[in-house]
Specification:
- This protein is 41% helix and 16% strand.
- It is α/β, with parallel strands linked by helices.
- It has two domains: 180 residues, Rossmann fold, CATH 3.40.50.2000; 159 residues, Rossmann fold (3-Layer(aba) Sandwich), CATH 3.40.50.2000.
- The strands form two sheets. The protein has a seven-stranded parallel beta sheet, with helices on both faces. Strands 10-9-8-11-12-13 form a six-stranded parallel beta sheet, sandwiched between helices.
- The radius of gyration is 22 Å and the shape is elongated.
- The two termini are 20 Å apart.
Length: 366
């Protein structure tokens, strides 16, 4: 089987990591994998470094008729009769569907993963595109529900929910920071932006000044916003309680010795990769409850859920975990068990491969 991933983002992010991890696992299982991008060095480099064939396409959606022709020609030059084109947004799905229509002498199927919150279109054009996608994968039940709210012409058999996963290192050595002085460690990982609730987090830790801790922020954002957050931490009197670690490709050393992980998003999260990263290391997470988080965390069992934009609730939950070692240990153990049973990479990969095999065996939708 030939598997082709389409990625059109300009910067490296969670979707690109999802593609890379999946492509590596597919290659290990014996599949022939190629990746097509728009040719941005920041996204191409990790794929190339991992030994993948990276092709370039315009991937410009509705008005792009060149990319399907080029991709169809590429498929025609290879011997595999069974081909999966896996698009990672609906703009790229247009290219995939058009390519499929040009490859009538091959068994080409289209799989599309929706990684973000989005409502379906109901126009005739999009009904045509949706109808020729063989499987639409949603990364959570809530994202599927939001997408289907406008009642597009999509058969339920075309849809599937496959929770995201991460490949966990076999051994993780914790980072050591002289700033800490071995203080209890709270960790945030991910993009630093308003939607992720960083301001709520800074406000919340200002309510914890009476107990020892250090907050580590692993990630970065816009320079002006980072400057604003620095000023905010000064105003709230917690500048000396925050370690700004910046962006790290490997976050596990930063979270391995965390007492508590935090995911205080104020936007609706499609999933929450950072949450399961913490869980994989046995670290309990305090997360907002306004997206897929309740599908990941059982409140009070393997983590804690709080209302978004509530520094008081966030602070209370963090305080409870920092001050109660038995509770923290129990939730951490349960978090690891939840990860292993529901979100491990072997489970995710088996579900993805089953979808690929099922669509390959279906009659083509031309």
């Amino acid at each position: 089987m030939k598997i082709i991933h389409l990625s059109s983002n300009k910067i490296w992010g969670g979707v690109e990591r999802y593609i890379l991890d999946l492509a590596i696992a597919q290659r290990k299982s014996g599949e022939n994998v190629a990746i097509f991008t728009k040719g941005h060095p920041l996204t191409d480099s990790p794929f190339i470094q991992n030994g993948f064939e990276v092709g370039r396409l315009r991937l410009n959606g509705v008005l792009d008729f060149i990319s399907p022709v080029k991709l169809a020609n590429y498929i025609g030059r290879h011997s595999e009769d069974d081909v999966i084109i896996h698009a990672h947004n609906f703009k790229n799905a247009i290219t995939a569907v058009r390519t499929k229509s040009l490859c009538r002498n091959k068994n080409v199927k289209v799989v599309t993963t929706l990684h973000f919150r989005k409502k379906a279109h109901t126009s005739a054009f999009w009904s045509f595109i949706y109808g020729r996608i063989d499987k639409i994968i949603f990364v959570s039940e809530i994202i599927k529900k939001i997408f289907l709210e406008p009642t597009p012409k999509i058969k339920m058999l075309q849809t599937a929910v496959v929770y995201n996963s991460v490949i966990v290192p076999k051994k993780v050595d914790a980072d050591m920071h002289v700033q800490d002085g071995c203080l209890p460690k709270i960790v945030y990982t991910g993009r630093v932006c308003e939607d992720k609730g960083i301001e709520v987090l800074i406000n919340s830790i200002s309510l914890l000044k009476d107990i020892p801790f250090m907050l580590h922020v692993v990630g970065t954002g816009d320079a002006d916003y980072m400057s604003y957050l620095g000023e905010m931490s000064e105003r709230y009197g917690v500048a000396d309680k925050i370690v700004w670690e910046g962006h790290k490709r490997d976050v596990y050393p930063s979270i391995a010795d965390a007492y508590v992980g935090v995911a205080p998003s104020i936007c609706i999260e499609a999933f929450g990769l950072t949450i399961i990263e913490f869980m994989s290391q046995g670290v309990p997470v305090v997360a907002s409850d306004n997206g897929a988080q309740p599908e990941i965390i059982t409140n009070g069992e393997d983590g804690m859920l709080v209302s978004p934009s509530s520094p008081e609730q966030l602070a209370a939950a963090i305080r409870k975990l920092l001050m109660d070692e038995k509770l923290r240990s129990r939730m951490g153990r349960n978090a690891r068990l939840t990860f292993e049973s529901k979100f491990s990479y072997p489970k995710f990969f088996a579900e993805m491969q089953a979808i690929y095999q099922s669509v390959i065996s279906q009659k083509s939708k031309l």
